């Protein structure tokens, strides 16, 4: 009797374990399908590494060009958001300008920015990555600008700012800044858009961090976390 009971208990245990395994596998399959479905309808995020090619952007005292750091943060940002199931596109994934016309650098920059704006307008939201530079060397810390044309831009900026502070810069007290006509893309974007100035090339300690591959990935992670929190 005891034996039978033990055997029944064992049988029940086996059934339960098998059931749990089947459920786990089924859950996994459902989950993967869910991710695939999400990817098709996923928000279309545009990442815009500022400058590129003949347009180096700001230059640090050691010759580091802003365009290089912008790309170095944008590439891991792309990978992180892609892995999270978003449909991610980049304005550039290499060191190029996006101009389709123009001879002088100025004309090429105008063509470049028009082409970027067309991509911004086709996306659900855009995160533009830049670096700051100031005449005085003491200033540091990420600063985020948002497009004043959509309320969502400010919400997204706030979300990214919160994550940058929580994960990387607990002492950062910089307020969000409304993009003015000085920032062409923010001024003209009718879709949600923010511009993240990751740090100051003019501050030697921050420049050293910005050039560090680990810090670049950390910055990318903080921005990605802000985007995910926004959604
Ligand atoms: Zn810039």
Provide tags for this entry:
231 residues, binds zinc ion, alpha/beta, Aminopeptidase, 6 strands, disordered N terminus, 2 domains, 6-stranded mixed sheet
- Shape summary: globular
**What is the C-alpha radius of gyration, as a whole number of Å?**
23 Å
Write the CATH architecture name of the largest domain.
3-Layer(aba) Sandwich
Bound molecules: zinc ion
List low-pLDDT spans.
Answer: 1-38
Describe the largest sheet: 6 strands, mixed
Q: CATH-wise, what's the superfamily of the largest domain?
A: Zn-dependent exopeptidases
CATH topology of the largest domain: Aminopeptidase
Q: Helix content range of the residues, please?
A: 40-55%
Description:
With 231 residues, this protein is of the alpha/beta class. It is 53% helix and 14% strand. Strands 2-1-3-6-4-5 form a six-stranded mixed β-sheet, with helices on both faces. Residues 50-51, 57, 66, 130 line the site of zinc ion. Zinc ion is lined by residues 50-51, 57, 66, 130.
Short note summarizing the structure:
The protein has 231 residues and is of the alpha/beta class.
Please render the helix and strand layout as text.
Elements: H1 2-41, E1 44-49, H2 66-83, E2 87-90, H3 105-122, E3 125-132, E4 143-146, H4 151-167, E5 177-178, H5 184-188, E6 193-200, H6 204-210, H7 213-230
Parallel strand pairs: 1-2, 1-3, 3-6, 4-5
Antiparallel strand pairs: 4-6
The structure holds zinc ion.
């Amino acid at each position: 009797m005891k034996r039978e009971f033990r055997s029944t208990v064992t049988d029940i245990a086996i059934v339960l374990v098998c059931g749990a395994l089947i459920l786990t596998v089924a859950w996994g399959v459902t989950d993967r399908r869910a991710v695939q479905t999400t990817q098709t309808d996923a928000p279309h995020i545009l990442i815009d590494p500022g400058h590129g090619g003949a347009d180096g952007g700001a230059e640090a005292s050691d010759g580091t060009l802003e365009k290089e750091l912008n790309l170095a943060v944008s590439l891991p940002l792309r990978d992180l958001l892609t892995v999270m199931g978003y449909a991610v596109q980049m304005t550039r994934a290499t060191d190029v300008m996006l101009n389709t016309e123009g001879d002088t650098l100025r004309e090429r920059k105008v063509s470049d920015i028009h082409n970027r704006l067309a991509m911004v307008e086709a996306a659900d939201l855009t995160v533009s990555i830049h670096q700051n530079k100031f005449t005085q060397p003491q200033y540091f810390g990420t600063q985020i600008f948002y497009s004043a044309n959509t309320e969502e831009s400010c919400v997204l900026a706030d979300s990214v700012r919160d994550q940058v502070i929580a994960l990387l810069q607990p002492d950062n007290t910089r307020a969000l800044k409304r993009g003015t006509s000085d920032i062409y893309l923010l001024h003209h974007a009718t879709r949600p858009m923010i511009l993240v100035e990751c740090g100051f090339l003019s501050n030697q300690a921050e420049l050293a961090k910005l050039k560090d591959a680990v810090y670049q990935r950390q910055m990318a992670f903080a921005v990605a976390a802000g985007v995910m929190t926004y959604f």
